[in-house]
Each structure stands twice: as C-alpha cells, then as structure tokens.
Amino acid sequence: MHAARLIDLTKFYHLGDNIVRALRGVSADFPVGDFVAIMGASGSGKSTLLNLLGALDRPTSGHYVLSGYDVGKLNDDELSEIRNRLIGFIFQSYNLIPQYTVLENIQVPLHYRCDRRTIGPAEVNRCLDLAGKVGLSDRLDHRPFQLSGGQQQRVAIARALINDPEIILADEPTGNLDSVTEKEIMDLLTGLNREGRTIIMVTHETSVAKRARHQIVMKDGLIASEGMFNHDTETK
Amino acid sequence: MPFANTLRTIRLALKSLMLHKLRSGLTMLGIVFGVFSVIAMLAIGEGASAQAQQQVLALGATNIIVVTVKPPADSQQSAGGGSSRGGSRGFSVPQYGLLRADYDLMTKTIPTITGAVRMREIVSEARYLQRILNVRLVGSTTEYMEMNHLQLLQGRFLSDEDETDMTNVAVLGAETAATLFPFEDPLGQTIQIRTHRYKVVGVMRSRTASAAIGGSLSGQDFNKDIYIPLSTFRVRIGDVVFTRLSGTFMSEEVQLNQITLKVKDRSDVVPTSEVVRESLRRTHGTKADYDIIVPLELLKQADQIKQIFNIVLGSIAAISLLVGGIGIMNIMLATVTERTREIGIRRALGARQRDIIEQFLTETIVLSGSGGLIGILLGLMTPLAFQGIKSVVQNFILEGASEVSQMGKMFTEMEPRIAWWSLPVAFGISVGIGIIFGIYPAQAAAKLDPIEALRHE
Known about the structure:
The structure holds two protein chains of two kinds. By secondary structure, chain A is α/β, with parallel strands linked by helices. Chain A has helices at residues 46-53, 76-86, 102-111, 121-133, 149-161, 179-194, 206-209, and strands at 2-15, 18-31, 35-40, 61-66, 69-70, 87-90, 167-171, 198-202, 214-219, 222-227. In chain A, the strands form two sheets. Chain A has a six-stranded mixed sheet, with helices on both faces. Chain A has a four-stranded antiparallel sheet with strand order 2-1-4-5, covered by helices on one side. In chain A, α6 links the parallel β7 (167-171) and β8 (198-202). In chain A, α5 (149-161) packs parallel to α6. Chain B is an alpha+beta fold. In chain B, 55% of the residues lie in helices and 18% in strands. Chain B has 16 helices and twelve strands. Chain B has helices at residues 2-18, 21-59, 73-78, 100-109, 144-147, 160-165, 174-180, 230-236, 266-284, 295-338, 340-348, 353-380, 382-398, 406-413, 422-446, 450-455; strands at 63-68, 113-128, 131-140, 152-155, 169-172, 190-193, 196-204, 225-229, 240-245, 248-253, 258-263, 290-293. A six-stranded mixed β-barrel of chain B has the order 2-3-8-5-7-6. Chain B has a two-stranded antiparallel sheet with strand order 9-10. In chain B, a hairpin with a 2-residue loop joins β9 and β10. The longest helix of chain B is centred in the C-terminal third of the chain and has 44 residues, at 295-338. The model of chain B is unreliable at 75-89 and 214-218 (pLDDT under 50). The A-B interface holds A 51, 54, 56-57, 76-77, 80-81, 83-85, 89, 91, 95-100, 104, 108-109, 111-113, 117-119, 159, 163 and B 1, 4-5, 8, 12, 15-16, 18-19, 341-342, 344-355, 450-451, 454.
C-alpha cells in the first residue's frame, strides 16, 4: 500500500533561453508509514522535488500519484484541495500567521476544507487535543512572537496534523533550532511515524537524516543513492 | 451555517487590520470624511431647500399673486410719462401698474377665484413723539392678514367697517411697534404718517420673512409694516406719490401694488393663472408693468433647484470618497506585498485563489465599511457643526454690517436637515468603494505563485 508514488518525474524550468533540468526522471515509492529523509546539496533538485510532493507545482512529465490521485493532471483549485486534505506541511521557518493565536493557527487548514468549513465544538476539541499532544496546552492564546522557535515548530506540527493528512512534508524542520530543541522536534516526528504517519523530510544534516527509516540522496536532478543507515528505530 | 463562517471571516479580517492600527485608521479617514461630507452636503442642501419651500408655502400654495412692476424707462416714455421737474405745472406723472378696474374685472369674470385681496404700498416715514421710523405703509383690507399668514399679538386687524368708513386706524408690525413704542403700550396711541394721524388698533406677532417676490418693495419682511385700510390710503395718500430722492423729485401714479388671488384647489392654480395672464394682457397691452407670481410654480422650481443642489453637492462629496477609495487601494496593495509570505502559507495549507480574494476583499470592505459607519456618526453631528460655523459667520462677517444681505439672512436662518435616506446610501457607497478598490489588490494577492510567495522574505 503506497501513500505516494513517483514515476519518472521530470521538471524543467525556462530561464531565458536556457532550460534548467531540475528533475531529470525521479522514481520512488513511499509506502504508508514510511519515514524518509531526502538529502542533497543545494541545486540537486531536492527543493523542486519537495514542491512537487507538496502539490505546489506540477511536473513537466511523469506521474506523481498521491493517495490515488495523479497530481500532475489537477487544476489549481484541485491542487489546493489536495494540499489541504492530503498534505501536512512543516517548514524550516515555521510559517505561522503572525496576527493569529496558537489555537487560530492550528485552525487555519480547517478554514479551507472543501466540504465543511464550519468550526464547531468537535473541531475545537480536536485542536485542543493536538495542542496537548505537542505540549502547548498552556499556550493557546499566545501569538507566535511570544513563543520560542521550538514552540512555534510544535504549533506548525499540530497545524499539519489537523486535517489528518496522508503524508507529512517537513522541509528542514530543525534547520533553525538548537540541538536540544532539534532532538525534541525529531522525537515528536518519530513518535508520529511510530503511530503510522508517513513522513517525508528534506534535510541536509546527516544527524537529522539518520533518524528517518531510510534516506534518499539527490544529485543533479536524479536520485543518486538510497540507503538505510543507522536509523534509530526501536527495532534495532 | 454560512453566516457563522462570514462572521469568522470578518473577525479574522479585523484581527489582520488591528495588526497595523495606525495605518488602518489613517486609511479609514479618507472614507470617514468622504461619507461625512456626503451626509453633511446633503443635509445642508436639504435644509436650504426646506427653507425655500417654507418661504414659498408662506406665499400660499393656492394663491396667485399679481404685482405691479415699474416698467423700464423707455416704455415709460412711450406711455406718455416724462419725469420733469416739480414746480412747472402741467407735467405728466408716469402712471403704471395694476388698476382697480383689473381687480373688478378679474373677480367678476373668473369663477375659480374664491378670494382676492388688493394692496397698495409705499415706503414712508412714521412718527410717534420724537421717534421716527421708515416703514412699509400698506393699504389693504381685512383678508390681508389671513392671506399672508400673519398673526395678531394684541388688538385687532383692519375690519370691513374700517374699509367702508375710511377710518384713520393703523395696525403695526412687530418691529415697528417695538421701535415706535419701546416703553408704552401702542394700543390706542396715535401715530403720524405724512400729514395725517392714525390710531393704533392692533399689533402683529413677529414673523419670519418670506421670499422676496418681484416688484415688492422689500423682501416681504412683514415686521416693519404699518397697515391701514385701503380706502383710507386712497383718500389720505392717493395714487400719486412724490418722493424726494437726493435733491430730485420723483413722482408716480400707481393704483394698486398687488392683487392676491386665491383659488379653491391646487389643481385650479395653473389654469386660473393662465386666464389672469390673458385678461391682463387685454387691458394692459404690451406695457410690462405687472408680473404674475404663482407660488405653486415656485414650489416646483424649488424642488428642481433642490435636486440640482443635491446632485452638485453630492458629486463634490463623491470626489472625496473617490480619493478615499484610492487611498484604500494603495494601502491594500502595499499590504499584499507585505503579506506575500502569509499568502504563500495559506495557499500551501489549501486556500484556493478565491479564498485569498475573499480574505483581502473582506479586509477592504471591513475597513471601508467601518469608515462609513464612523462617517455616518460624524454626519449625524452636522447640525451641531453647522451651529458652530453659523456663530462664526455671525460674529465675524455679519456683525457690524448695517445691512445684512439676503444671502446672509438665508444662511443664518437655515437649519441643515439630515436626509435619512442618505445614511444607508452613504454606507452602501462606502462598502461599494471597498469592493471596487479592493478587488484589484485581492486578485493580485490570489495570483501570486505559492512557491514564490513562500520563499518571500
């Protein structure tokens, strides 16, 4: 059972007269419950891959199948729906909305659900549960600038989970954090993976990548190597 | 529950606007003053027209007023008159105006006329003891009071017996009475006009001036009047009046200055006035020594003027609203640039383009709509503000001026009237401005590429 499949994915950009081949044919399978770290130097195509995985962009050719939908064939509104329903984003710089409180930030994806946009007691309870899960029950009325980086990333994680997505996409989730907080956030993510969440994480730090179940290394728009080294699952 | 969703959208929009309180407030000011000026301008226009209508109505909506007009000099000569020096016998006095025969003809031949009042007036000196006052001396009959909506303060008005007996009685206007009799009770006293003495039998209540009508001696300020019976006027003063003006004598012969005709119904006014016009043309020929004033037509004109006023003043105010709208658009465009990253975040979390449009449009509408509400509150205070302007005008411009112009009088007596329909209209316009000037920035926000937007610092 695959959460996401990439079949010969390419992405070309036109820069003036030049064509930049950011992805030159990437194929990969991400089974449900996977935790994969994508690594690579800058310019290797990992950001492009992440944009495609996040349904923020469409491939030039090839297929990206997410939960049964061929994302490359969808229009803008449908892509929005896919992002809302099937993908949970965690960014390097947290990307919370500054004027909203913690609770309101967790609720934002609920505003954009395509079927039911109303926020009732059930939804609020779900937000409270998630805030408790990431350890922010006592910070619900705080605004982002009143929180530490680690706390902000926890809010982002709760927000990513609110619509119960098929995959969680984490883009350098610990890039702005110190090592102690980094460990806390990674513990949280591995915990989620252990509960069965599929997580795809982009990082360039080996220490972080090691905590995933396996790693993909990108180079020049292709997957250079795949490996499973030193991951610290409980099954070791 | 779409209503709950709308409320939430508005609440979140307010939150975003509160992020920059000063900026939002300043942006709103444009709309605040725009809406305020719309309401204030319309209130002043409405007040002025209400005043004009009141003045016209005071002339009587079912009245037709025929007045004597002094014809232009060349036609006077053709009428046989030449103003020669007094002293040489045999000079001819120019004769013009309405005739007693006109009155008889009209009242006898036009059946729709239910009442008629003749009036003769000159400016004259009135005297009591050593107090002298220039007044409008009016010779008329007992109906004059009712026809001009005058009210008695004390005593009585002219009676029919006064008319038949040609008694020497006088009724004083409020100001006349106050000037000639500052301490005494005027009733029963005797005043002197020219060479004759008249007994005061009544005093009128003070009355606001009504619109000046063509040919009248003054702007129908009834407070400086003295009324005597028309028959008395004819025998004591006569049709020929000499006036001495800076060394030269002027003389003229006028039988009647004004005939006010009353018809039963408003629908009779216009046809009757046509008949009157025709009948006078036959007797007077081409001599332009009379004018027919139909207050009902003036009323219609006043209505027209009011509409023109409203449109002109409204347009001026609309310009300020337009400026306010442009200000809003400017700020919203800046806001969109500033919040590019937020837009990227929302798009990543699943917002469609139309969700982004809805969000920014709501923010603009909340901004302009609340500006509109504040503007309406300010607009409701127009009468207060106008009071202040009035006192400034009175203290600095009109004070010390010996003669207050008609315009000045109109201004000081004018009360702005808030047109209640203008309140919802003004609010609607402010919301409309939010939509018109908000749609472009909102679309600009929605069209941003999510990836670029997320990368924006």
